[in-house]
Amino acid sequence: MGEFEVHRVRFFGLVPAGVRCLAYLSRGGRLALARTDGAVEIYNFGANYFQEKVIPGHETRSVEALCWAAGDRLFGAGLSGDITEYDLARLCVAHSVDGCGGPIWSMAANGSGTQLAIGCEDGSIKLFQVVPDGIQFERNLDRRKGRILCLSWHPSGSHIAAGSIDILRVFDVSSGLTVQTIMVNYHVQKVKRECIVWSIAFLSSGTIITSDSFGRVQFWDWEQGTLQDSHTVSTSAALSLAVSENEDSMIVGTSTGATYQFQLLPVKMDSQEKRWVRTKPFQYHTHDVRAVVHSSTALISGGLDAQLVIRPLMEKINKKSYDVALRKFTFPHRRLVSCARKARLLLFQFSQHLELWRLGSTEETGKDGEVLPLSRMPEHLVQLKSKGPEHICCSCVSPCGSWVAYSTASRFHLCRVQCEGNSISVKKVPKVPKLLLPAYQLQFSSDSHRLFIASARGSVHVLQLLEPGDCKHLHTLQPPSGSSEAVYLLASSTDGLWLAAVGGDWAIHVYNLKFFKYHCTVPMYNCAVTALAIHPLINTLVIAYSDQQLFEFSILKKKYTSWSRMVQHCGLHKSWLERDTPITHITFNPKKPSHILLHDLYMFCVLDKSLPLPKNSTLLMNQNTLKQLPETARKQELHAFKICKKFQPLLFVDLLDEKCLVVVERPIMDFKTQLPLPIQQKKFGT
Amino acid sequence: LFQVSDQKPLGCWSVKHGQVLTCPVVCNFETHEYIAVHDDKVLRIWKNEDINLDKVFKATLSAEVHRIHSLPNGGPVVLFRGGGVRTLDVLLEAPQQEIENIISDEVIKWSEAFMEGKQPVLIFTTEKDGDFFVYVQKLKTNTLHKYKLEQQELSKPMSFTAYIKNRIITLLCLCSNDCVYKVLVPLQQNTEEEEQILPKSLLLNLSVSGSVLKGTSFVVLDKDHIAVLGGLTASNEEPKECLTIWNTKFQTLQTSKELPLGTSGQLWCYEEKFFFTHGKVLTVIMYKCETSSLAAAVGKLKDGQTPDVSAFVNWNTLGYEELADSFQSQQSGALKYESTMALRSERNAVASVQPDDLSVGKLLLNLKDVPRRIFEDGIRQLMSQAQTLELQASIGSVVTALTNRYKANSNHYHRTFMLEIVQTYDLSYSLCPDLMAVALERKDVHLLQTCLLRFPDIPEEMTYACLEMFLSIDEDYLKYTDLDLDSVICYIDIESNNKEVKTEIVENGFSTEQEEGTWDTQLTEESSLTSDGELCPVGAQRAALLNAVLCSAYSEAFLLPHLKNLPAKQAVLFLRYLFYLYVKCSEKINTTLPGMSSPTISQIMDWMCILLDAHFTVIVMLPEAKLFLSSMHKFVRAQVRFYSELNKIEGSLQELQRLHHQKDPQTYSIEVLEII
C-alpha cells in the first residue's frame, strides 16, 4: 500500500486524574466514577464498558462520595460541603444543596433509594429525603465529635453504621440515637497512632465490616459490639471495601495498590458454619485503591494511578475468553487532541489549559522503520489558559490553524491565532453569540469558515467565522422529534453540505447545511457511537460503535451502503470484535477513496474497502507476516484490515497528507512518573 | 486470635455471699437457659433477661452434684457424686427423689457426655486406691457398665479426654509418665459379665529431643492430632508453659506456642478454636490441622504436593483405621477384642504380613527352608502373580524374606537376584530396611550403589556407612567388581595411567601464572597438576561408588555427626576427590559433569562444605593435606575473582541495555512506516 512518514508525538503531557470514588447501578449496568479533579464519568457496561458520559471537573468541587438514588439519579458530595445532583442528559450540575455540616466525607443512600445520609466534618450525620425536584433536609442523627469518614445503611434501612477516627457507631434511623459505640482500637493499647476507619459495610445479618488505616479488615457484631474476626491485609491502610449484593463476597482496596477478595465460605465441606476467608489477592494498581465496587459479575477497583480495573468473576471457566478478560481503563474514550491538517498544528486539551504545537519536518526519506533526521524541531506555539475553576470540556483547532475554540461549562471562547514567522498573536473574539451552554463538542468545517457547536437537547449551533476575527450565529439545528440528550459527536462533510450529530440517546441525525434543515436519521443501533466521519468524496457516513461494529451509511441514498451490508453479512474478524478500547477517531485519505483510517488506544488501522474481509481463520494482524513475504506472494494474503500496533497507547492519529501521518502517544510510564510516589514497598533484592 | 478480655461481657450473674458455685455453669442449648449448682445441692436455672440470681428458679436436690453436662440435642444430664445420673427433666419433676450411690467410696475424676445416635451416653472415670475405673451410662436404656483400667506401673492417669466414633468411645488418658494412652471402650455390650479390664495402648510419648512435656490437660483435634497444654521441661531448665500440637500418626511435635505468663492448666476447644487462660486473660487461638502426611510431619511437604505422593507403604503407620474397621466388623465380645490387640502387637513381626498379602506371606513361609534354586523360582512366580496394587508391599516382603534367609544361613546370599529386584522395582529403604545392612556386610558394592541411586529414603547413618566402606575398600577388590560406571565414564579415563590423554583445558579465567609467587615452586607444580585435573585421586570404580553417595539424598544435620567419625585419611581422600570433581565441573561453563547420573556441582559443593565442617581441624593438621588444601584455596579464590569480574561485566552490560532502552523515548521523531 505504501510508506508513510509518521510524526510520532510524545509531548502531550496528559496526566489523567486519580479515581476517587465509584458507584455502581446494577439496574442498567452503569458505573459512575469521580476523579480527584472533580470530573464525573459514566461507564455503560452494556455498551462494552464505553465511557458514555463525562461531566467535566471543577477546581472547588471535589467529589468524595457518589451514589445512585431514586432509580437512576446520581448524587455527589464533597469537601465543599454541598450535595450535588447531576443532570445526566445535559452533563452538568442539576442542583446543589448545602449540607450545613462542613466538608462532607461520606454519603450513602438507603436500600430503596429514598433517603440519603451524609457524614460531615463536624461529626454530624444528616438525612435527606430524595424528592422529585431535588433533596430535602429531613433530620440530624445524634451528633458526636469526629468527622464521619464512611457510612453504611443496614439493608433494611433501620440502622446506619458510621466510621470515624478510632471509633464506629451505629445509629437507629427512626429515633436518631446512637445505639452502639465500638472502639476499634480498644485492645491495641501500645499503639498511640489513631486508627482511621476508612470504609464500612453493614450486612443484613447484623455484621459490620470495617477497613482501617492499620490495614485491618474487621468483622463486628453490632448488637453485642464484639469483634468477630480480624484480618490484617496490609501493613499500610485498607482504604476501601465493597460487599456483593448476596453478601457472600467482598473486595478490599489498600494503599499499596493491592486488592483482596474475601469470601464467605463454609468452614468444612457441607458445613453450616461459614467464615470470611481471604481468597484472592490482586495487584493491578500501583497507587492507593480509593474506591472499589463489587458487582454481581465483577470486582471493580479504581486507584489514584487513574486506572479503572474491571476483573470479571468467572472462576469456574477455565477457557480464556473475551468475557473473562480483565479490563483496564486509563485514558478517556474521547479525543483530547485536534489537528490542523493544512497548518500542521496540534491542539492538546488539558483540564485547564490548551497547548498549540507546530510539528517538525524532515527533508529526508527512508525505508521502513528508519528514524529520519529532523530539519525543523516541533515548536510549542502557545498556551491558552482557561480562567476560573471550571475545567475545559471540549476544544478544537480549525483546519487552517487560525482559529481555536474551546468551552467550559459556562463559557465559550473563540480565538484567532496568527502565526507570522516567529511571532504568534492570539486574539480573543470579543463578542461571541450568547448560546445555550455548555458546548459538548466543537467542529470546524473543512474550509474553516464555519464552526459547529454541539449543544444540549440534541441541538447544534452553526457559527459563521468572519475575517479578521469575528463571528455570527447562523442557525441552530434541531432534531425533528426533539431530544433531551446532549449531542456529543459531530462530523461535517468536506464539501460543506452535510453535518452528522450523535446525541446521548445514540441517535445519529444528518442535517443539510445548505438549507439548514434536517435530512435523515441513521437507523438506530443499540450501542453507543464512539466515532463517526463523512467521506470527503462520496459523502458516506462511517460509524464505529462501542461493540466494535463498523457501518457505512450513504447520506444521499439514506441507506447503508452495499459494503456495509456485506460487512454485516460476513461479520467482522473475531480479533477485531474482541478489542478492549473503542475507535475514537476516523479519517480518510482523499487520494485513496477506498481507505478508511481508524484508531483505538492500542492500534491504528487502514481499512481498504477494495480488499476482501479477513476470515476468522486467518491472522488479523498480518503486517509482520506480509513483510516477510516476497512481493508476489503477498497478494493472496492481503485483506482489508491493515493494522499497525507499533505506537501505543495512542491518543490520536490523523492523516496530514496522503503520505504523512501524525500519531500522538502517551506512554504509561511517562505519566506514572508524574504521579505522587506510591507507598514504598520493600521488594526482595532491591 | 484474640483475647476475650478485649470483648465486652454480655452478662454477669453472681451468687450471694457465702454461697459457692460447685460445678461449671452450662447452657441448655434447647431452651437457652443457664444451669448452675451452688453449695453442692442447690440448682439454679435462669435466662438471659434475668438479672438477679437470687430470684430465679431454685431446686434443692437430695444428693450432691458432681457435674452437669449439656448436650446439643439431648438436654442437660446431671451426674451426682455417687455416680447416679439423671436427665434434668427427670430430676426437675421430683427434685427430692432419691439418688442411688453406685460407686461407694470411689472418687469421680472426670466425666463427659456424648450423643450416640439419639441416646445420651455419659462416661466417667473414678479412682480408688490407685485403681481407675471407667463407667459408661446409657440414659435411655438405663444401663451401666463398669470397666477397670489396665494397671500401669509407676504411672497413673492424670487427665482424660474422649471422643466417640463408629459407636466406640475412644478414651485417651494422659499419664504421669508423660505418655498418652488410648483405651477403646465398646458401647455395644450385651454380656453382663463381671468387671472387665480395659487394656491401654501407648498413643504418644510427650518427649521431644531431650525435653519432656509435663502435660496438664489435652484435647483431641482430629484423628491424627492432639493438643496438650503443659510445661515443657528441658534438662536443667525452668519448665516453660506451652500449648503444643502433636501428630499421633508420626509421633511428632507439630507446633508449640510458649505461654510465658502461665496458665491455669486447663484447655478447652470448641469449633477449631482453643480457649485457655494466659496470665489473667482468657485467650482464644484458632488452629487448623492439615491432613497428616509423613512429609508434613518432618517438615518437607512441598507446596501443592498432594499428601499421598508416596508410593511406599510405611508399615508402622497403618495403625488406627484398619484397627477401627476390623473392630467395627466384629460383633461383640471381649475375646475377639483381645485378638485384635494381639494382632496389633504382632505387626512388627516380619512373617505376619497384613491381611492384604496374607497369601504372599504364607507362600514365603512355605519357601523358608527350600534349596536356593527352588526358592528363587518360587519367588519369581510369586512376584509375577502379585497384583499391581499390592506390588510394593509384596516385593517388600519378598526382599525381607531374602534378607531373613541370609541372616538364618549366610550361605544363602542371592546377590544377582536381589540386584535384579532393586533395579526393577521402585523400592524404598523403609520397605526393606535390612537389605542395605546385609549388602554392607557382604561388601556387595554394586547392590549398594544401586540402592543409593534408587532409594529415596536412606538414613544418613547408612549413607555414611556406605561412604566409609567405599573409601576404605581395597582398590584391587574393586577392580574386579562389576559396577555401573555411567557416572564417571565421561570424565575419568578408565586407563588412568595413560598420560597421553591430556585434554585441552578451558580454565574459566583462572590461570596459575597470574597468581604471584607467595607459593613455592613445588606448590605451584602440585596445584597445577591438580587443577589440570590430570589425576583423579581415586580409581574409576571407587569414583562411581562415591558418586552414588553424592547423589543420594541426605540432611546435613543428621549426616554431620556420622561424618565426624570418618578417619582422617579417608576424609582427605574424599576431599581430594570432591575437589577434583569441582575442578572438572568448572572446566566447562555449564558446570555439570557429563554422563548419566553424575553429581551436580551443587551436590559436590555441599559435600565439600560438610566434609570440611566435619574434619576441619584434622585436615588442617595433616601434613599431606596441606599442599592440597592450599591449592584448593587458590582455585576457589581464583573462581571468586573470576565471578566478581563477571559481576562487573554484568553491570556494564546492564548499563548498555539501559542506554539502549533510553534511546527509545524521545518526545518527537519522524519515522517511516510501511503498511502493506
From TrEMBL, chain A:
GO cellular component terms given for this protein: 90S preribosome; small-subunit processome; t-UTP complex
Molecular function as annotated in GO: RNA binding
Gene3D superfamilies for this protein: YVTN repeat-like/Quinoprotein amine dehydrogenase (2.130.10.10)
GO biological process: maturation of SSU-rRNA from tricistronic rRNA transcript (SSU-rRNA, 5.8S rRNA, LSU-rRNA)
Domain of life of the organism encoding this protein: Eukaryota
A Pfam family reported for this protein in Swiss-Prot or TrEMBL: WD40
Transmembrane regions: none
InterPro entries, A to Z: Quinoprotein_ADH-like_sf, UTP4, WD40/YVTN_repeat-like_dom_sf, WD40_rpt
Name under which the protein is recorded: UTP4 protein
Automatic annotation (TrEMBL), chain B:
Record domain Nucleolar protein 11 C-terminal: where: 388-674
Entry keyword Transcription: yes
GO molecular function, one term: RNA binding
Entry protein name: NOL11 protein
Glycoprotein found in the keyword field: no
GO cellular component term, pick one: nucleolus
InterPro entries in UniProt: NOL11, Nol11_C, NOL11_N
Compartments reported by the entry: Nucleus, Nucleolus
A UniProt-annotated Pfam family: Nol11_C
GO BP annotation list: maturation of SSU-rRNA
Keywords noted in UniProt: Activator, Nucleus, rRNA processing, Transcription, Transcription regulation
Domain of life: Eukaryota
Species whose genome carries this gene: Indicator maculatus
The Nucleolar protein 11 N-terminal domain, residue ranges: 2-288
